[in-house]
Design goal:
The complex is a heterodimer of chains A (246) and B (238). With 246 residues, chain A is an all-alpha fold. In chain A, 72% of the residues lie in helices and 0% in strands. Chain A contains eleven helices and no strands. In chain A, helix 2 packs antiparallel against helix 3 (46-74) and helix 3 runs antiparallel to helix 8. The longest helix of chain A is centred in the middle third of the chain and has 33 residues, at 94-126. The two termini of chain A are 24 Å apart. The relative contact order of chain A is 0.14. The mean pLDDT of chain A is 84. Chain B is mainly α. Chain B has one domain (2-234). In chain B, 77% of the residues lie in helices and 0% in strands. Chain B is built from twelve helices and no strands. The chains are: A mainly alpha (246), B mainly alpha (238). At the A-B interface, helix 2, helix 3 and helix 8 of A face helix 2, helix 5 and helix 10 of B. Chain A: This is ABC transporter permease.
């Protein structure tokens, strides 16, 4: 545990002054622009409508792809200039190192979600919606659910990011599996089992008759896919990393 | 000289996975349409695109062509730049008796070759998919050939930006994040203003004012290419 916290601190130092925070800002800013450009009704439905308008780009494409970029980013220093040799020769277990990297990715993702929430509230406030009407419960479930739904992708991307030294290579894999989201959203048969579509399915549930395709599933069935793929990807990544020749 | 440089660059790209990306992109697009058509064959062939199945196939592939091309440009250029970045070999390459503008041109040409191969593969795999689904009617060879090529030409401005960024910025996360962001925004191309180059391949893929946007794309690219080449020729090598 002690070494794990030290590893975590060294990760934080390595990421200090890097542009990873800048990357976490891109997505909320773009979604805010979309939110400002769309006009949704006023009154009680306004906040939910704004969320729905802003969440499409965010949950369908940005969140899965940003997960890949963050994961590739935390491995960048080690791939550049033989960093793996140096860090693995320290008295720190490989699992501890792996978990500290995963936790950093998770932290950045959480920050991304938080910034997205701030973007929604900011756009709503600019448009003059009543701040007292913010559906905290609904927003909270969606933001936390979307964050959890990204964890399997973070585990998979960290796995391939430790494996491939090029920054772009893991992202190729990430992008190839994320783009079909556009089609898979419509499919009630395949959507629930496709890990890359889970953030979208969790965050875009509108309730009532607005749900189509794979939307509107009970949250439990989504979490089975999320939990299952997380365990699978994490186990594969840890096994690989513990045996990786440096 | 440029021929030798290009040959050297293509040699360096062996066993780096770059050609896999060139192969997987178009084949993946066709596989996605195979699933799309395979699962809803009756609806798509006899209802949505009744009478023009080939046109329907090309149109529904075309929805994904702009974003695929943008992503390919970003990732391929980053992988090409990564060859030099990883081995710290910019110094060595540029110490050779070649002009820097020629090194820049050779990186561009190798990416262009890969993109052209990807376009040809897209046409080929779409043709095979159409034949496998036993579509009626004459095969629209010309439309198949241009379905990848024209959007690619209209998307060239992003390649101009990517050439400049990936070859001059050492931290590849910055150009990649920008390129991917641009690609994702291009999904909503139809609702973007015409003046934004990002939306051009989307219009071309839908057959709107094809040649205008192709010409504009090439023109903007030439300007960006010259600017990038100029900066690359003068910058300090670390």
């Amino acid at each position: 545990m002690g070494t794990w916290i030290s590893a975590l601190r060294s990760e934080r130092i390595k990421l200090g002054r890097s542009q990873i925070m800048l990357l976490a800002v891109i997505d909320p800013v773009l979604c805010a622009v979309i939110g400002l450009l769309t006009s949704v009704g006023s009154g009680e439905e306004a906040w939910a409508g704004l969320m729905l308008a802003m969440v499409v780009l965010h949950a369908m494409l940005f969140l899965p792809i940003m997960t890949g970029i963050f994961s590739a980013y935390v491995c960048r220093y080690e791939h550049a200039g033989g960093g793996w040799k140096q860090i693995l020769s320290l008295p720190v277990s490989r699992s501890a190192l792996y978990f500290s990297k995963l936790l950093v990715v998770m932290g950045t993702l959480a920050l991304n979600q938080l910034l997205f929430f701030i973007a929604i509230v900011g756009v709503g406030a600019l448009k003059g919606y009543d701040l007292a009407l913010i559906p905290w419960g609904d927003f909270g479930i969606k933001l936390i659910g979307g964050f959890i739904a990204c964890l399997p992708l973070a585990a998979l991307q960290l796995f391939v990011s430790t494996m491939w030294s090029s920054f772009a290579a893991p992202l190729v894999l990430n992008v190839i599996f994320t783009i079909p989201n556009i089609l898979i959203a419509n499919s009630a048969t395949y959507g629930p089992y496709y890990p890359w579509a889970q953030p979208m399915l969790v965050m875009m549930q509108a309730g009532g008759e607005y749900d189509f395709g794979a939307f509107g599933l009970p949250i439990e069935s989504l979490l089975i896919t999320v939990g299952g793929s997380f365990v699978l990807f994490l186990a594969a990544g840890l096994t690989y990393f513990n045996r990786k020749p440096v | 000289m440029i021929g030798k440089l290009l040959a050297a660059d293509l040699l360096k790209m062996r066993r780096t996975g770059i050609w896999w990306v060139v192969f997987i992109g178009p084949v993946g697009l066709a596989a996605m349409q195979a699933l799309n058509f395979g699962l809803r064959y009756d609806y798509l062939v006899y209802d949505a695109y009744a009478g023009d199945a080939w046109g329907g196939l090309i149109e529904s592939t075309g929805l994904f062509v702009p974003i695929a091309i943008y992503l390919a440009m970003t990732l391929l250029m980053s992988m090409i730049a990564n060859i030099e970045n990883r081995q710290n070999s910019w110094k060595q390459t540029l110490a050779l008796p070649v002009r820097r503008s020629q090194v820049f041109a050779s990186k561009f040409l190798s990416c262009l070759i890969q993109l052209l191969v990807a376009c040809a593969l897209l046409s080929g795999s779409t043709l095979i998919l159409g034949l496998a689904l036993k579509f009626d009617g004459p095969i629209p060879y010309l439309d198949l050939l241009t379905s990848g090529l024209y959007p690619m030409l209209a998307a060239l401005p992003l390649l101009g930006v990517m050439l400049w960024l990936t070859l001059t910025v050492r931290n590849q996360a910055i150009p990649i994040a920008l390129g991917i962001t641009a690609s994702l925004v291009s999904v909503f191309g139809a609702s973007l203003p015409h003046a934004l180059p990002l939306s051009w391949p989307g219009f071309v893929a839908h057959g709107q004012q094809t040649l205008t946007f192709v010409g504009l794309g090439i023109a903007v690219f030439i300007v960006l290419y010259l600017l990038g080449s100029l900066h690359f020729s003068r910058k300090d090598v670390a």
